[in-house]
């Protein structure tokens, strides 16, 4: 479903600040794969998601979704293929608009919009039913401005918006990292539920090794802009944090040194 072919990205080339963020990365996802991505700071995790989303031009390589080459496609045109939830709960929603208005914007993603814009009664009832599934009581607050919601509520709403029009690929960019542990666990469980129920193809970046192992059917570990480890199926089901650290040391020749991941 997703094909990444030998992509490379270097920031500030030819300067003292040169950084090779992606180094000849290739990756293929099957339809319905839920892939967790882990690695230390600067490993290339977010850069990989930004490459798929079209945040900037690649130096080399190609990216295809369902056989369509999106390498040169601008970000707004890729929106019809992708859903994305960012690390910052303040991103992905319009704070000064109501909950139902935000959902209406998400529902129209990738479509041509005319001068007539509004939330129809039938549409509003559908939003109410979708919000009810979140279990946060937001179905009774649809006229509330999104900026008044808590971080967890806002992130759950962003997740719903990203999947309202079933995306071909869902990108979760450390989307629970800014939340307290209890709220993060709830949003993560909700993400897993939506992915399974809608049979979505998803890439989820996390700094938590236990979450990377517990969720999804496939785990990728990145290091210095490369995919170092790719574990799936029965091998992933049996994986432990100690196993993963051992695989990293065997593949890289060094100990895993991310304090953030180890503390998590």
Topology:
Blueprint (H helix, E strand, L loop, with lengths): L1 E10 L7 E11 L4 E6 L5 H9 L6 E6 L2 E2 L5 H4 L3 E4 L13 H9 L13 H12 L18 H14 L4 E5 L7 H18 L3 E4 L3 H6 L3 E6 L2 E7 H5 L3 H12 L6 H5 L1
Parallel strand pairs: 3-8, 3-9, 6-7, 7-8
Antiparallel strand pairs: 1-2, 1-4, 4-5, 9-10
Helix pairs in contact: 3-5, 5-6
β-strand number: 10
Spell the H/E element sequence. Answer: EEEHEEHEHHHEHEHEEHHH
Give the CA-CA distance, first to last residue. Answer: 31 Å
Note poorly predicted spans: none
Mean pLDDT: 89
Rough outline = globular
Beta-strand proportion = 15-25%
Structural class by secondary-structure content: alpha/beta
| Sheet with the most strands: spatial strand order | 6-7-8-3-9-10
Share of helical residues: 25-40%
Keywords:
alpha/beta, six-stranded mixed sheet, 23% strand, 264 residues, 36% helix, four-stranded antiparallel sheet
């Amino acid at each position: 479903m997703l094909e990444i072919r030998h992509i490379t990205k270097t920031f500030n080339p030819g300067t003292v600040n040169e950084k090779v963020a992606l180094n000849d990365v290739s990756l293929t996802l099957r339809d319905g794969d839920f892939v967790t991505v882990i690695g230390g700071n600067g490993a290339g995790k977010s850069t990989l998601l930004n490459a798929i989303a079209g945040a900037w031009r690649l130096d080399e390589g190609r990216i295809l979704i369902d056989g369509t080459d999106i390498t040169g496609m601008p970000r707004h045109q890729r929106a019809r293929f992708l859903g994305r939830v960012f690390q910052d709960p303040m991103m992905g929603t319009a704070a000064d608009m109501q909950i139902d208005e935000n959902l209406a914007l998400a529902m129209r993603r990738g479509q041509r919009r005319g001068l007539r814009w509004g939330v129809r009664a039938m549409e509003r009832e559908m939003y109410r039913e979708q919000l009810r599934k979140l279990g946060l009581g937001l179905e009774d607050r649809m006229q509330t401005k999104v900026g008044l919601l808590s971080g967890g509520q806002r992130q759950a709403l962003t997740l719903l918006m990203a999947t309202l029009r079933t995306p071909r690929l869902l990108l979760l960019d450390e989307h629970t990292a800014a939340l307290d542990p209890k709220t993060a666990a709830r949003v993560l469980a909700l993400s897993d539920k939506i992915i399974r129920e809608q049979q979505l193809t998803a890439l989820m970046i996390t700094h938590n090794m236990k979450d990377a192992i517990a969720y999804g059917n496939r785990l990728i570990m990145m290091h210095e802009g490369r995919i170092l480890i790719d574990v799936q199926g029965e091998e992933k089901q049996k994986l432990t944090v100690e196993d993963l650290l051992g695989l990293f040391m065997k593949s890289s020749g060094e100990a895993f040194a991310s304090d953030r991941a180890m503390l998590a």
